[in-house]
């Protein structure tokens, strides 16, 4: 019989024969990982893959079972495939693969739910002399298993593979998770963990049996001790054993001992020694393989020593290179490993030592790169990729920190910091570098984890490999029991020491890491006092069940709004729970379906926290009664833009409605139609978005009355969603340019452009790419643009009866035009432009006689950006940017004085970037936000105060050189933030607050909750303003009072009050980008 010709076939037969003889003593699933690493690209590789499957089946071995195989079946019988034509061989393989069954099992090594197919799931076994059938798929240790993918949550796996079978682990579970929440498996959601855990054996679940197992585990711990033990039978040895048993009893939960016997622990011990010393076994097999290879040289099928080494390393690379004594010492140091599934330990070691995938390496190169949590690291491991440690590095790491092999959260606690410092030589400098390189990945983890990762780097492990290890294996980090100063400084009650069981429960229930958990505690510190059995577990289950959420949906909602973990969920006869009350409101009063409510909560989780009587119901009644919106449309509004219900009715929604009513001459019914069409309009900023859009349309479309503007907005409300400088202006310019190409003059092209847009306003609501494609199409077909852009009746929805009037009839075709530019304005009145501001004389140091005007712009930003998809409470940094356009225009002449003023105003100034074309060289300063809890609002408020301090320092410089006692000084600070503008627009209130000596004496009369005013930043600003306006400025170096002006007038204005054109839009973007750069700089330096 001729042999199958494919690469490595003879070597595989040799390996199978030799390893079969060795496996009678050693448990080495040597080809466990090979099949997934092989890709079936062609027929030859496919036959090789199948042969490895057959060999692996022979080696499959289960606890207390001995696999029976047909003794007549030899390795050479696998060559039967050669007798068939190639097509028949492939058909047979396809038919065999179709017999596969799909299973879901929980991987403790990766804390993920693995879905896999087992193509040969039935196998005969012999137990107590009787052949029986066993389902080998449950063990997942034979190469007929095909890993499909893995999931964080079991409901995701079940949803995608509804016919899959759940595999039970050998661990003992309980019927009710409340009885013992420590046994809960990660990612189970509302599914009870006992569905994937075994039931306790009545004979084993006794205290006597537990002590017996614990005693044997203590013997293992003592047997590997390198220090001399007391003499056998002595009382000292008994005391030592009792002490070890007591320690293990405290560290290992009772239920983990009930699923083991001394025999199973001993068997695991032998297998672990074998895995950790795999290099020793490899040398023995190498010797035999090379001998067989030389014997076959006469037949012309010899295998070189290098080929043997390469093939053998491929088949056995799961092991480490411990000596036998070293392996036993490691197990003695961490005896809990004997209670683990050995296959899980192999998976962990395999992942640690497999090479890194190139794309994963790129994603983990940057120290501050965000953690990608959707990577399927288990499947990646099965395909031959891992964390990239060498065998020697992994061996050395596990020798020093055996807890890297832990499969349970409670086992992940590393040795003390003194151990790393004294015995392993981890320096403080290396610790600082570790914190810098790993960044947010260390948030919320125990300090010993930092030492452990620093030690890994000290033995040559690259930071990229460490980041991958942290992201892939949740159990390499342990929760910090200390709440930290960021939590302790809050006024809410906080436990002095966090409960580890509660922390581990949240990690498993929500599948989050320590940094997410730390962020949750920062946002809602009361969670530290909640009990798992009576609060957290029933609350999370109730929210997920009653709102029909998936586990990932619940994770997202809780991370954005951790306070929902404290809401009441159990209704009584006397009182309805907070959860049920809100569900009833949205489903009954607002007429939402549960699917609508789910979509709304994913966008705005705080809907579950808003008061029904004071927040939700008044807004609902306003939409129904004032805007005349029907209940069916209310569903659409809440589903698309639930953030509306978080806005202030009097301070936010009603002013926007009033502005649209006055600026566009629209009725409440018309505005209701607009809101139904585009609900997000009500969440737009009035100052930043709506009013600039109105101004732009009036100016560039030459609208002479509000009705024209109202007709355009009513015809295409989505225009308001587009930015003026980034969308609307470029589109009008594109149409103008295209009309010029048709041969129109400047005046005619402007007139035609206005006519086109008024006739079909929806042009401005399309994307730039689509508009350009339409223009190219019309030009290519020689179709006039005016004809091509006419409204089409097909597919156009009639919004209002007012739309029946053609827009082009509202245009006066004969009206005179000034010029073609889009930003033309015939009558600016008293509205200043940026150019006017720049031209204001800056005569501060020139012995002025006329009043002095100083204008400053202020902006703040945070990094990383906060949105609905990010975790609240994550570490963020803030930055501010301040610009005085008059100094920018003056150039280098005043720059030295400006820099001196900024140095006296800020302690953390960002160094200027050389040759930056975007950031002005003069008159602009970037600084870090120096206070706690950076947010966009707080940074904008501090930026206003910073601008005021810079102006104060400039005035103090001038007062030292010039007499300002008879000079009036007018200071205007423009802010980009409507939040800051609303707080600071009333100068009289600011001066009144600043007159108080201490903040506790101030009655801050502001709209909304006082907590939103950030009084820790607002009060110092008012004090600075009060000193400047009352001539209470003192030169500290000379201890004398300075007069910085006869009358000092300070006002804060919104930047939208300036004449809005392309120049001010560009300046706004530059200043905001400068503030963002400062925030990033602050984030990276801390």
Task: Give your account of this protein's structure.
The protein is of the alpha+beta class and 1086 residues long. Residues 1-100, 121-144, 298-302 and 794-830 have low confidence and may be disordered. The protein is built from 45 helices and 14 strands. The chain has a 5-stranded mixed beta sheet. It has a 4-stranded mixed beta sheet with strand order 6-3-2-7. Strands 1-4-5 form a 3-stranded antiparallel beta sheet, with no helix packed on it.
Q: How many individual β-strands? A: 14
Rounded to the nearest angstrom, the distance between the terminal CA atoms is 72 Å
Counting helices, strands and paired strands, the structural category is: alpha+beta
- Regions with pLDDT < 50 over 5+ consecutive residues? 1-100, 121-144, 298-302, 794-830
Mean pLDDT: 79
């Amino acid at each position: 019989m001729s042999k199958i010709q494919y690469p490595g076939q003879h070597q595989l037969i040799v390996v199978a024969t030799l390893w079969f003889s060795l496996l009678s003593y050693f448990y080495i699933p040597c080809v466990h990982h090979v099949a997934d690493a092989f890709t079936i690209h062609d027929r030859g590789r496919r036959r090789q893959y199948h042969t490895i499957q057959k060999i692996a089946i022979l080696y499959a071995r289960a606890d207390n079972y001995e696999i029976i195989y047909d003794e007549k079946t030899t390795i050479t019988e696998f060559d039967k495939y050669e007798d068939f034509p190639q097509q028949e061989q492939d058909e047979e393989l396809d038919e065999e693969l179709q017999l596969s069954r799909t299973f879901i099992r929980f991987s403790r090594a990766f804390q993920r739910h693995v879905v896999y197919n087992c193509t040969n799931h039935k196998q005969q076994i012999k137990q107590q002399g009787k052949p029986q059938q066993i389902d080998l798929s449950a063990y997942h240790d034979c190469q007929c298993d095909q890993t499909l993918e893995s999931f964080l949550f079991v409901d995701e796996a079940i949803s995608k593979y509804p016919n899959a079978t759940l595999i039970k682990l050998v661990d003992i579970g309980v019927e009710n998770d409340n009885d013992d929440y420590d046994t809960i498996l990660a990612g189970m959601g509302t599914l009870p963990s006992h569905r994937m855990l075994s039931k306790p054996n009545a004979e084993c679940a006794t205290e006597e049996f537990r002590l017996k197992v614990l005693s044997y585990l203590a013997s293992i711990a003592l047997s590997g001790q390198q220090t001399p033990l007391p003499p056998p039978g002595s009382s000292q040895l008994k005391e030592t054993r009792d002490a070890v048993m007591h320690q293990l009893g405290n560290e290992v939960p009772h239920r983990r001992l009930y699923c083991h016997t001394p025999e199973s622990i001993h068997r695991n011990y032998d297998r672990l020694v074998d895995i950790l010393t795999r290099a020793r076994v490899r040398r023995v097999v190498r010797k035999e393989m090379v001998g067989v290879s030389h014997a076959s040289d006469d037949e012309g099928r010899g295998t070189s020593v290098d080929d043997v080494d390469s093939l053998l390393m491929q088949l056995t690379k799961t092991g480490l290179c411990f000596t036998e004594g070293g392996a036993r010492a490691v197990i003695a140091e961490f005896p809990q490993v004997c209670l683990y599934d050995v296959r899980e330990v192999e998976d962990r070691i395999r992942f640690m030592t497999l090479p890194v995938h190139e794309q994963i390496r790129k994603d983990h190169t940057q120290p501050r790169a965000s953690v990608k949590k959707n990577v399927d690291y288990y499947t990646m491991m099965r395909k031959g990729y891992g964390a990239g440690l060498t065998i020697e590095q992994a061996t050395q790491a596990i020798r020093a920190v055996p807890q890297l092999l832990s499969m349970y959260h409670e086992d992940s606690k590393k040795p003390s910091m003194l151990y790393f410092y004294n015995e392993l030589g981890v320096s403080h400098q290396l610790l600082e570098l570790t914190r810098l390189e790993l960044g947010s990945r260390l948030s919320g983890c125990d300090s010993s984890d930092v030492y452990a990762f620093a030690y890994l780097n000290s033995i040559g492990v690259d930071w990229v490999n460490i980041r991958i290890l942290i992201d892939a294996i949740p159990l390499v980090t342990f929760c910090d029991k200390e709440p930290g100063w960021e939590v302790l400084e809050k006024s809410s009650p906080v436990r002095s020491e966090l409960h580890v069981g509660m922390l581990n429960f949240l990690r498993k229930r929500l599948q989050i890491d320590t940094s997410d958990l730390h962020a949750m505690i920062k946002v809602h510190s009361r969670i530290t006092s909640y009990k798992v059995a009576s609060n957290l577990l029933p609350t999370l289950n109730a929210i997920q069940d009653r709102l029909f959420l998936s586990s990932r949906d619940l994770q997202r909602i809780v991370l954005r709004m951790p306070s929902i973990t404290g809401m009441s969920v159990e209704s009584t006869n006397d009182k309805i729970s907070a959860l049920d009350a809100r569900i009833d409101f949205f489903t009954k009063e607002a007429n939402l379906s549960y699917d609508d409510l789910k979509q709304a909560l994913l966008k705005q989780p705080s809907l579950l926290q808003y008061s029904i009587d004071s927040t939700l119901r008044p807004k609902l009644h306003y939409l129904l009664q004032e805007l005349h919106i029907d209940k069916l449309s209310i569903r659409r509004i809440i589903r698309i833009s639930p953030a509306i219900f978080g806005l202030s009715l009097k301070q936010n929604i009603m002013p926007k409605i009033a502005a649209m009513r006055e600026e566009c001459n629209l009725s409440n019914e018309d505005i209701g139609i607009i809101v139904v069409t585009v609900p997000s309009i009500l969440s737009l900023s009035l100052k930043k978005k709506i009013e600039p859009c109105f101004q732009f349309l009036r100016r560039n479309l030459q609208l002479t009355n509000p009705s024209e503007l109202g007709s355009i907005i009513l015809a295409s409300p989505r225009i308001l969603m587009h930015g003026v400088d980034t969308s609307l202006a470029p589109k009008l310019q594109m149409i103008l340019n295209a009309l010029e190409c048709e041969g129109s003059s400047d005046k005619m092209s402007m007139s035609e452009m206005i006519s086109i847009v008024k006739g079909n306003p929806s042009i401005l609501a399309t994307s730039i790419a689509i508009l350009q494609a339409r223009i190219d199409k019309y030009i290519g077909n020689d179709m006039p643009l005016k004809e091509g852009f006419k409204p089409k009746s097909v597919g156009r929805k009639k919004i209002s009866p007012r739309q029946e009037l053609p827009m082009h009839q509202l245009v006066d075709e004969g009206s005179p035009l000034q010029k073609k530019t889009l930003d033309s304005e015939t009558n600016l009145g008293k509205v200043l432009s940026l150019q006017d501001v720049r031209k204001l004389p800056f005569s501060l140091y020139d012995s002025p006689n006329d009043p002095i005007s100083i204008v400053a712009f202020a902006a703040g930003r945070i990094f990383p950006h906060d949105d609905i998809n990010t975790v609240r409470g994550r570490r963020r940094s803030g930055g501010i940017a301040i610009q005085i356009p008059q100094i920018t225009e003056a150039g280098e002449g005043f720059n030295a004085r400006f820099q001196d003023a900024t140095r006296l105003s800020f302690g953390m100034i960002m160094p200027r970037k050389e040759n930056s074309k975007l950031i002005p060289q003069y008159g602009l300063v970037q600084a870090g936000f120096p206070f706690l809890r950076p947010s966009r609002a707080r940074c904008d408020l501090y930026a206003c105060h910073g601008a005021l301090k810079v102006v104060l320092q400039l005035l103090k410089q001038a007062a030292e050189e010039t007499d300002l006692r008879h000079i009036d000084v007018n200071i205007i600070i423009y802010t980009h933030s409507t939040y800051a503008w609303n707080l600071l627009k009333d100068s009289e209130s600011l001066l009144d607050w600043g007159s108080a000596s201490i903040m506790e004496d101030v009655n801050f009369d502001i709209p909304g909750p006082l907590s939103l005013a950030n009084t820790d930043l607002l009060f110092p600003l008012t004090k600075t303003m009060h000193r400047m306006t009352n001539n209470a400025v003192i030169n500290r170096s000379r201890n004398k009072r300075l007069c910085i002006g006869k009358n000092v007038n300070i006002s804060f204005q919104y930047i939208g009050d300036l004449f809005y054109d392309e120049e001010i839009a560009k300046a706004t973007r530059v200043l905001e980008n400068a503030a963002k750069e400062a925030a990033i700089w602050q984030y990276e330096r801390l």
